[in-house]
């Protein structure tokens, strides 16, 4: 299930810096009627990273034999035979193209026998419904997948029925994926990637995975090479529905030796399990419903748990990032310290370069608000290509808008305006409705003070 609360880009910063009463005319260049056309990413070339087969075996077992709640799953389940998929409801215009790209990748990179159909008896039904309908059933979900139903209405009626209990499944035959019909194009695409991946394979999310959509930090929004390899292994002929964890553990080394021959000689780094206390702290800090004081205590708890565990991986960085988020509205100095601490841990590994891009949006925004456009530009520019490669339009647009604002503030007005115009096509995909794009534009344009400090 994809949570409704995802990583915002700069949005909370406005509550803790002084904003000018008006913006200089040189920045007000995009009228409501002149937004450029939406941009969409082309087919993604596979990104390869060295993956240890021992680590892949360990991660596969943790992902496939446990739920996010920590509940153990007794057997492996998957579809046996060709997989058919249909779309119902009111899908937004961009869904068809994004789904087609995803299915092409699943066939090419994961080797799946999956195709679309209009038949009512499809293996997987993707139903697009208004977000309000989803929230009436699952208030915190942006989208979700459920077994043995074909629609939100069926799930609503059967949600407490044993048929919709993942732990009781012996194989997968019928699934429904519920996605929002009125979200931004990127949010709909992200839901397709995460929920279809879980419909086909692992049901668990692991905060310790740095390069995967099977992670509730929502940093990666499209399936990675790690995810595709896990799915390819799920449908390997050596495996079958009904296998126990021990049975799967016995054959997985052979599976990955065949699928990933280069990983046999790579050492698996030691990792520790993520305690439920850390997960609850992160969910409280960033999720809905908690008071500011409760959020701050939860974020501090996550940092404490990560520190006492001796983590130096993405979980430690994410704890500091969460702490920066919750401190933004009350203590900008402490928030910046937390973001810088997050960046220090993310900088330790090549697998967390995308994570650093998120931190850069926050630190770059602070630099602009403090009247230092050169520093803001230096902070965000190195991450633009990474955001583009990860196909994250919201992140890409935010980084480009911050860089454009910095250029304009430095007097490079024509260069900044051109970059801003280029970013708006990505913003339309990433943020959706025109009003949301204009809100993002105003938010970032308002960061640089009219009279920067001397």
Structure description:
This protein is of the alpha/beta class and 454 residues long. It folds into 2 domains: 2-41 and 272-445, Alpha Horseshoe (Serine Threonine Protein Phosphatase 5, Tetratricopeptide repeat); 53-261, Collagenase (Catalytic Domain) (3-Layer(aba) Sandwich). 48% of the residues lie in helices and 7% in strands. A 6-stranded mixed beta sheet has the order 1-5-6-4-2-3. β2, α2 (95-110) and β3 (114-116) form a beta-alpha-beta unit. α1 runs antiparallel to α7 (245-259) and α12 (353-369) packs antiparallel against α13 (373-380). The model is unreliable at 14-33 (pLDDT under 50).
Terminal CA distance reads 49 Å
Number of domains: 2
Q: Mind summarizing the main beta sheet?
A: 6 strands, mixed
Shape: globular
Order of helices and strands: EHEHEEHEHEHHHHHHHHHHHHH
* Mean pLDDT, all residues: 92
Q: What do we call the CATH topology of the largest domain? A: Serine Threonine Protein Phosphatase 5, Tetratricopeptide repeat
**Strand count:** 6
CATH superfamily of the largest domain: Tetratricopeptide repeat domain
Order of strands across the biggest sheet? Answer: 1-5-6-4-2-3
Query: Please, what is the oligomeric state?
Result: single chain
> What is the CATH C level class of the largest domain, in words?
Mainly Alpha
Number of helical segments? 17
Compute the CA-based radius of gyration.
22 Å
- The poorly predicted ranges are 14-33
What class do helices, strands and sheet pairing give? alpha/beta
Question: Which range does the strand content fall in?
Answer: 5-15%
Instruction: Give the second-level CATH assignment, the architecture of the largest domain.
Output: Alpha Horseshoe
How much helicity do the residues have? Answer: 40-55%
């Amino acid at each position: 299930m994809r949570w409704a609360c995802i990583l915002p880009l700069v949005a909370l910063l406005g509550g803790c810096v002084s904003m000018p009463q008006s913006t200089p005319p040189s920045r007000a260049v995009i009228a409501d009627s002149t937004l450029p056309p939406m941009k969409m990413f082309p087919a993604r070339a596979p990104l390869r990273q060295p993956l240890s087969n021992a680590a892949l075996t360990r991660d596969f077992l943790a992902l496939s034999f446990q739920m996010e709640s920590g509940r153990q799953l007794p057997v492996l389940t998957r579809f046996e035979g060709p997989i058919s998929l249909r779309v119902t409801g009111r899908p937004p215009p961009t869904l068809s193209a994004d789904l087609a790209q995803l299915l092409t990748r699943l066939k090419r990179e994961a080797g799946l026998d999956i195709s679309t159909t209009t038949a009512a008896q499809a293996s997987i039904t993707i139903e697009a419904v208004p977000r309000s309908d989803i929230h009436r059933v699952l208030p915190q979900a942006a989208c979700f997948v459920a077994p043995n139903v074909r629609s939100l209405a069926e799930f609503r009626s059967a949600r407490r029925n044993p048929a919709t209990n993942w732990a009781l499944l012996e194989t997968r035959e019928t699934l429904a994926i519920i996605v929002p019909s009125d979200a931004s194009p990127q949010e709909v695409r992200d839901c397709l990637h995460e929920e279809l991946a879980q419909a086909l394979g692992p049901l668990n999310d692991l905060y310790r995975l740095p390069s995967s959509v099977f992670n509730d930090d929502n940093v990666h929004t499209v399936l990675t090479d790690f995810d595709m390899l896990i799915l390819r292994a799920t449908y390997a002929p050596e495996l079958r529905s009904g296998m126990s964890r021990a049975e799967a553990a016995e054959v997985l080394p052979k599976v990955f030796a065949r699928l990933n021959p280069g990983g046999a000689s790579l050492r698996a780094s030691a990792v520790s399990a993520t305690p439920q206390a850390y997960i609850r702290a992160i969910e409280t800090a960033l999720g809905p419903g908690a008071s500011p004081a409760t959020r701050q205590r939860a974020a501090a708890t996550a940092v404490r748990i990560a520190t006492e565990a001796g983590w130096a991986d993405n979980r430690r960085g994410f704890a500091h990032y969460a702490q920066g988020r919750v401190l933004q509205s009350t203590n900008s100095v402490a928030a910046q310290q937390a973001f810088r601490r997050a960046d220090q841990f993310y900088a330790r590994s090549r697998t967390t370069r995308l994570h650093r891009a998120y931190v850069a949006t926050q630190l770059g925004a602070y630099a602009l608000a403090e009247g230092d456009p050169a520093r803001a530009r230096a902070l965000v520019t190195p991450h633009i290509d990474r955001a583009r490669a990860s196909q994250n339009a919201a992140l890409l647009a935010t980084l480009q808008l911050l860089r454009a604002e910095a250029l304009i503030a430095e007097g490079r007005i024509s260069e900044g305006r051109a970059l801003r115009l280029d970013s708006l096509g990505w913003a339309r995909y990433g943020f959706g409705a025109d009003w949301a794009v204009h809100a993002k534009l105003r938010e970032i344009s308002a960061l640089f003070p009219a009279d920067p400090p001397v």
